[in-house]
Amino acid sequence: MGIADLDDLTPNYREKSINELQRETEKFYNAVKTGKLPSLTLTDLIGFWVWKINARNLKSEFPADHAYWEEHGLFEKNYYYDANINPFRLLLARIIEPIIHFYLQRIFKGYS
């Protein structure tokens, strides 16, 4: 889970981030305990695609990130690990990809 430095967040977002961290920690604990991976949500998939787009398009700004994604074949994958992905959610994530890319181009310098 990516999370900003809590000290840099406003109190409202800090509390939201702490709550999200607690939820994700419980999901991780349950997955380890049961040996079963939780099903992926559309938010999980979109988050993956955002980081994939960043790693691909900000190669010169973050060469280590790009190298990691390339080395592990993540640019060709639909998620960080092999998972059963609901085909409808995957389709939505792929449809949303150009929208994410367009949005990120407006935020970051050096986006191609």
Relevant terms:
0% strand; 112 residues; 2 domains; globular
Describe the protein.
The radius of gyration is 16 Å and the shape is globular. The model has no long low-confidence stretch (mean pLDDT about 85). The protein has helices at about 10-35, 40-55, 65-70, 85-105. Helices cover about 60% and strands about 0% of the residues. The chain is mainly α and about 110 residues long. The chain folds into two domains: about 1-40; about 40-105, no CATH class.
Topology pattern, helix = H, strand = E: HHHH
- Quote the distance from N terminus to C terminus: 26 Å
CA-based shape: globular
Number of domains: 2
Approximately what portion of the residues adopt beta-strand conformation? under 5%
**Parts with pLDDT < 50 across at least 5 consecutive residues:** none
Helical residue percent?
55-70%
Structural class: mainly alpha
Q: Treating each run of at least 4 consecutive H or I residues as one helix, how many helices?
A: 4
Summary of the model, kept short:
62% of the residues lie in helices and 0% in strands.
Please outline the helices and strands.
Layout lengths: L10 H24 L7 H16 L5 H9 L15 H21 L5
